[in-house]
Amino acid sequence: MSLELAATVAARGLDAALEVADGETLAVLGPNGAGKSTLLAVAAGLLRPDAGRVTLDGRDLTAPGTFVPTHDRRIALLAQDPLLFPHLSVLENVAFAPRSRGAGRREARATARRWLGEVGAADLADRRPARVSGGQGQRVALARALAADPRLLLLDEPMAALDVSVLPALRQTLRRVLADRTVVLVTHDVLDALLLADRVVVMENGRVVEAGPTTDVLERPRSGFTARIAGLNLVSGPWRDGAVAGVRGIAADDAPVEGEPAVAVFRPSAVSVFREAPGGSPRNSFPVTVTELEPHGDQVRVRAGHLAADVTVQSAAELDLAPGARAVFAVKASEVAVYRT
């Protein structure tokens, strides 16, 4: 493994561990306050853990008496704010990284021009940061981080503050320049994880609650947060009498045993909405109170607490759905996947 990290920071409620293989991009997902940024701060050397260990390429960065400072870790951190030096040109901002590692002025500028070209910002070289847009600033900051030739790149929601119009192009840039690099990416956006990450860990309350290949975690979530960002409904509880908290479904190969914690997962598109409980074919039915209506493509997503259903605009009008309205969500057991947590 390139990065091995296990850390406890009592004041911030962190007690987590993760590993990142050489050349792998790991996405860290989780709600606000889950401990994601604290984890990056420990890796970067900005925060000393109360207990634990951080190693990079086999080098112990946190051994007692030999705590390695941030500037000597060969780790670059890129956050929401590009933090460009306002008094330097874009070229000199990027050249600062190799200069800080001992490169001469000519070599540093050559390196800076190469990385500005890699991120599609070569035409900005002579500008000052005040004359670049938010998206352009993040490209420059990315070039500066890469120009430092880090062994590990930490990205702390680098696109969270950007206008939605610039995100697709920047994601494609990241996908290209991060290939074969060792990266930890903190993000709230499921698209970042799908397009950029090889693996995902999900954090809640300072702990890692899910981990695995990106598609596996997002297709088979085991926590409410992961289900929400993956656009799925999730009901959790013990597996009893062929159901999870009363929800029947199709058990996967790793079917839970009686009494074991399990989850039932189904798509909002599989949910039918009624004002009264339906008859006919056996269904799972949930009396709900509508909490929110929101556009979802050419349909309306009807939210009722942690559950959601997709209906047509016509159906929403005919059912007179609105926040506070009582309704019934129904889903066939054949549309529900059940697996152990």
UniProtKB/TrEMBL annotation:
Keywords: ATP-binding, Molybdenum, Nucleotide-binding, Transport. It comes from the Bacteria. Residues 3-230 form the ABC transporter domain. InterPro entries: AAA+_ATPase (IPR003593), ABC_SmlMolc_Importer (IPR050093), ABC_transporter-like_ATP-bd (IPR003439), Mo/tungstate-bd_C_term_dom (IPR008995), Mop_domain (IPR004606), P-loop_NTPase (IPR027417), Transp-assoc_OB_typ1 (IPR005116). The keyword ATP-binding applies. PANTHER family: SPERMIDINE/PUTRESCINE IMPORT ATP-BINDING PROTEIN POTA (PTHR42781), SPERMIDINE_PUTRESCINE IMPORT ATP-BINDING PROTEIN POTA (PTHR42781:SF4). This is ABC transporter ATP-binding protein. It comes from Nocardioides aquiterrae. The lineage of its organism: Bacteria, Bacillati, Actinomycetota, Actinomycetes, Propionibacteriales. One of its GO terms (molecular function) is ATP binding. Residues 279-340 form the Mop domain.
